[in-house]
Fold each of these.
Amino acid sequence: MNIVLIGFMGSGKTTVGKALANNLKFSFLDTDEYIEERAGMKISDIFATQGEKYFRELERSILGELTDRDHTVIATGGGLPLIEENRKRLKKIGKVIYLSANEQTLWKHLEGDCSRPLLAGENPRKKIQELLLERIPIYRQASDYCIEVDNRCIDGITKEIEKIVKSA
Ligand code: S3P
C-alpha cells in the first residue's frame, strides 16, 4: 500500500507528503529529490545541461524502480504524469491523489521561485496559466481522488487523505 501525490508545481505535494508519511508512519520519497541524488545535480542544472527530454527520461526510469515499494508516500514532479506509461505505473504503485490548486494559490507559492526551470522565462504567471490548462485534465485522468487545497492548512489536507486511505 502506497500513496502517490500528483499535481502542479507549488501545490504542496512535498509538504503534504512529508506530513502524511509522518502521521501514517510511512516512508517518504520525492521523485525530484531522488533524481537529484542519482544525478548528483540540481534539477535546474539537469535541464540546463541535458535538457528537459533527458530529465523526463530520468523520471520514467526511476518510476520503474518504485514498483516494489510499500508503505511509502511518493511525491511526484509536476510533469511526471504527462506521460501515459507513467500514469499507468503510478496507478499500479498506489492510490493516486491529485492535489488541486487554483492559479492564485500556485502563484502565491511560486512567485520568485528560481528552482523550477519551466518557470524561468519572462512571464512565469502566464506560463503557469498555460501549463494549467494543458495539465488539469491529465491530473484528473491520472488520479483516483482529487483534493482541493486552496486556502487550506496542511493538517486539514492530510486528515482528508488519511480518511480516504483508511476507507479505501
Ligand atoms: C516540473 C515540476 C518540478 C520538477 C521539474 C519539472 C513540471 O517538480 O520535476 O522542475 O514539469 O511540472 P515539482 O512539481 O515538485 O515542483
Note: Residues 9, 13, 32, 43, 77-79, 116-118 surround shikimate-3-phosphate (CB under 6 Å).
Amino acid sequence: MQNMYKLKIAVIIWMMLISDAVQSQNPGDQGISSSDNFKIEALLRTMTIDEKVGQLSLFISGWDVTGPTLNNNYKKLIKEGKVGAIFNAYTVDYVRELQKMALDESRLKIPLIFGYDVIHGHRTIFPIPLGQACSWDLAAIEKSERIAAQEATAEGLNWTFAPMVDITRDPRWGRVDEGAGEDTWLDCAIAQARVKGFQGTDLAANNTLLACAKHFAAYGAPQAGRDYNTVDMSQLSLYEWYLPPYKACVDAGVGSVMTSFNEIAGVPSTSNKWLLTDLLRNSWGFKGFVVTDFTAINELIPHGVATDLKEAAKLALNAGVDMDMQGSAYLNSLADLYNGKKITMKQLDDAVRVVLQAKFKLGLFDDPYRYCNKERQEKELMTPESQSFARKFVAQSCVLLKNQKQTLPIPATVRTIALIGPLGDSKKDMLGNWSAAGESEKCVTLLEGIKNRVNKNVSVIYEKGCNANDRDKSSFGNALKAASSADYVILALGEEGGMSGEASSRSNIDLPGVQNELAEIIINTGKPVAVVLFNGRPLTITKLNTLAPAILESWFGGTQAGNGIADVLLGDVNPSGKLTMTFPRNEGQIPIFYNAKNTGRPYNPADPGAKYVSRYLDCSNDPLFPFGYGLSYTSFTYSNLATTVEGSKINVTVQVTNSGNRDGEEVVQLYIRDKVGSVTRPLKELKGFQKVLITKGEIKTIEFNLTTADLAFYHPDLKKYWEPGEFVVYVGTNSAETISKSISVK
Ligand code: NOJ
C-alpha cells in the first residue's frame, strides 16, 4: 500500500518535472530538504486554483463539536481535492478512511493533515494546563505533552491546536484554565517545554505532533473577562507582556500559529497584516503556516471590517492567513478573487507552500498512513506508565492554600472519613475542559482515590450535599449526618468541569450555587475539615477561606485526579505546587496580578488612613493568595541572600532551610525590581526559579545567574534594552514573601 502510494506520487511528480522544469525557490523552507522543496514547487506548478484553495481549507469532521458550525460535506470535498486538513477526527480506522478518500479519489493525492485539540492529554488526561503550570516542573510538563503526542499519533493525529500561551490576568475569562497563568517569563518557559514535548526533535517521526501556538495575539485580555470580547492595550504592554510567549514558541520551532478571535487596537487578528506578516513572519522569522481560529475569517463581517465573505477572505489572505478553519471563506472566494485580479497567484502559492511544507515535514508524502497503525493504537493508549506519571503529575499540580493546625495530611489515627460535596464522586467533572479523547468513565474520582489508598480499617462515606450550581439544599441534612458520624471531613467543592473553558466566562467567580452554605454548616460541626477545590480558574473564596481550616487547590486533575489528590491528602506526597495566577478577594479587584506598577500615589500599609492614594475604600489592595503562593507540609526559611555584580553578570545566592519535620520540594523564586527607568517598571518581575528537594533539617544554597540582558525591557520605540541603575533582587517562597537586597548595575 505504502509503496504503491510512493510510486503514484513519484510518477505524478516526475511527469510534472519533465513537462515543466522547475527551479527550486524556497522562501521559508527551514527544515525542508532541497529535494522536498523541488517536489513542492513541482506540485505548485501542476495544481489548479481550486486544488490550491483546497490545501488552504480545514474542516471539522463532527466527531467533536468545538465551535458553532458543522460541515456535512467534508467527505465530498476531500474526494474533490478541496480539503487540506481535517480536525476532530481520530482513531486509526477513521483517519485511514478519510486519508484513503484523499489518496484514492482526489486528482493529486495530496495527503491530509489531521488536527485535534490535544490540550492536556489525548486519552490519558493530565491536569488542566493552569494546574500543570502550578507544578513549576518544566520537565513534567514536557513529558505530559510527549505522552499526549504518543497517544494522539497512535490514533491517527499529527497536529495539535496547542499550546495555548495567552497571558491571563482576568479569572472571569473562562479560558484561563488552558494557559499557564499571568506571568510572561514563566509562560515563555512553559510554552517552549510544551512545543518540545509535542514536536520532539523530529517532526517526521511517527510519534510527534505538529504544534500550534495560539491564540495570536493577546486573546487572553478580553475586556471585562468576556470571551471573544475586544482587546485594547498599549503597544508597550503588548510587546512586554503579551507577545513574548508566542515568540518563544516560534523560537522553539513551532510548526503552526493560530490567529485569535479578538481585535487588537481596532484590527481583528485574522485581518491583521502587521501582526501576521510584518511581526510574525518578517520580524520573528516564523516559517510554518498560519491557521485561523474557528470561522474567524467569517467573523470579520460582524467585527465590522468586511462587508461580505469575499472581502473577508481577501483581507485574511492579504494579512498572511494561510489556512481557513471551518469557515469555507477561502473555498468560496479565493478563486473568484484571483480571477477578478484581487489577489495574486504568488499570494496563493506562498500560502499553499507552507502547508505543503508541513506535510513534507510530517513525512506524510513518504507514507500518508504512518499514523494509522492498529497495533500501536492497541498498545500505546492509557499505558500503566502513563497512568502512574499522570497520578504523580496531579499531586504535583495541587496547591495547598491553607493548613491551619496541620489539618492536612489526614492523620493516620482517623477511622471514618466523610467525603462531602458535589465534586467528590463526579467522573464527568474530573477531565475539565478540552479533554480531547479522554473518557470520563475512566477517571478516578476523589472518592475512588481515597478508597484505593486507605486501609480496610478506615471507612469512607460519601454524601453529595448539593449540586455544584443550583440552589437546592434538600441534601444538606444527609451531609450533616455524615459529617457528624465521621472523625474527619473532606469537602469536595468547586465548579463543574464545563464552567471554565471557551465561552465560559463568569462575572461572579465565588463557589457557585449553595456550596458556601454547605461548607459553613459542615465546618460548624467542629470536625477537622479539609476542603479540596476543583476549578478551572482562581476563585474568590474569601468566605470559604475564613471558615475552612485547610484548603487544597486541585484544579481538574484528569484521568488520575482522585488518586493523585488522595496521595496529597493522606501525606504520601508533600504538596509543592505554587499558584501561577493571583486569587482575588473579590471580582472588583480584577484585573489583579503580581507584576503591577507602583503608580504615582502608591498605597502604604503603614499609613492606612491616607486618602489620596491608589486603594479601595472597601477592600484591601492585596489579593487573597498571591502569585507564586503555595504551602507545604514542611516549612522553609530563607536567609543569607548574597549578590555580586561583575560586568554583565549578576550572581545571586540564597540559603533555604527546611525548618519543618519532613522532606519537601520548594519552588525558590527570584524577582527583580528596576527602581528607576525611562519607562515605569513593575514592582516585581519573575526572572528565575528553581524547584528543589530539601530534606528535613537540610540547608541548601540556591544559586541564580542572571545577565544584564535579563534586565531589558521595551521602550516607546519598541526597542528592548536595559538601563543601568539601582535594582532590588528579591528571593522567596512566593511573590509577596521575599527577602531582598539592592544592587547597582552599571
Ligand atoms: C476554537 C478555539 O478557540 C480554539 O482554541 C480551538 O483550537 C478551535 N476552536 C478548534 O477546536
Note: The radius of gyration is 27 Å.
